[in-house]
Amino acid sequence: MPDDLLERFRHRDRLALARLLSRAARGEGVADLLARLGPPAKGGRVVAVTGSGGVGKSTLVGKLLETIRRHGPTVAVLACDPQSPLSGGALLGDRFRMPSRPDDDGVFIRSLAAAGGHGAVADHLDVMVRLLEKFGFDVLLIETVGAGQGDTAVHALADVVVLLLQPETGDDIQWEKAGLLEVADVIVIHKADLPGAAAVEAQVRQTLALSAGRQPAVLRVSSRTGEGLEPLWEVIRDLPPRRAADESGGRDLLRLAQEAVAERFARAEATRDPALRRILADWRGGVVDGDRAVAALLRLLAGG
Amino acid sequence: MTSAAPIRVVLAKVGLDGHDRGIKVVARALRDAGLHVIYAGLWQTPEAVVRTVADEDADWLGLSLLSGAHMTLVPRVLQLLREAGLDNVGVLVGGIVPEADVTKLLDMGVARVFGPGTSLPDIVAFLRQRAEAGHA
Fold this sequence. Notes:
The structure holds 2 protein chains of 2 kinds.
Chain A (H helix, E strand, L loop, with lengths): L2 H8 L3 H13 L3 H8 L7 E6 L6 H15 L3 E8 L7 E3 L14 E8 L10 H11 L3 E5 L16 E6 L6 H5 L3 H4 L2 E4 L7 H14 L6 E4 L8 H10 L11 H21 L3 H11 L5 H14 L1
Chain B lengths: L7 E7 L6 H12 L3 E9 L1 H11 L3 E6 L4 H14 L6 E6 L3 H10 L3 E3 L5 H13 L4
Parallel strand pairs in B: 1-2, 1-3, 3-4, 4-5
């Protein structure tokens, strides 16, 4: 990690921020970076916007960005789009639906490619969130890949999860399936200017009424007419932040250790490491039990 | 985990020019070639394009112009890139550019002008070759 880049970052150099975000996205020196950045800034707000493809995530993020800026807080956007599992290429087409505000230093938009298998967001998103918060952005909007069901990985990262639905989304059994509806803090019936919005809202409210515990807010929003944008920001602003304070950095270090272990395991597997093969054979053959096999594996990988 | 860095390209249309079929085809071809393409869309100002290139930490900027305003808009973009400290970003121009202007644009610092009849593999090959030569 070149020191001058971090130094420029501390002096609020936008190009240094952009460069560090690229490094974080590639996973370069993230352990170092997290340690040097320290714990997240207090009072920041990370908002994840999720929902299936075509529901209007980018458009809503763009409108929300303008609404928030009118109230004063600065906003950074991390917009995730899928990366091809075949070519590794990606067409990142979120930001063109958002307003371009070249004169406004209080807005930063970054497009990210999300490889599959990590729950609808790009790798190392937590490091990028930390960078943007430390740079001084008040609100972070994370747009997930349009997946819809099961992309609950953002839950741990965000203070507020906003789930977008639209008219004609599906019948009431859709809502009973486990997953997103349970982790959402705010449910937005988007495109509320279209017919059918009231029916979807009624279905969602009915489903929620049957579940015990915390009730998410349900709002109708239209990015076309602007209806519901102000109330949406008020709800997001006033919800208690979910990210628990982790002053010690324990969770950061655990995540990095997990990553390092996975990487070393993959390398040992790829090089057909004899020690690893022996551990695997002993475990599968019942020579050693699970606990001892895990202990042996950790010893092996720690030495590597 | 560390992976090889994909080339990041911002594609944009500047000024009053609504013809976006070509730029979308190029976007798709670059995506299929393994690049990360940030599509900035229509009617961008030079200032907005340069801000996008900066925040996205792009290696290349591809400008599509079919409006005839290339001799006004491209120099402006180049100047703003320099002012922003983004001299390292390569600039490509695509669209309808008369022969005489191509030379002028190249002299100003544009890396290549791709006119009508350019094949998609040519664009990909050019970017790959430049990446291997150390740009981006």
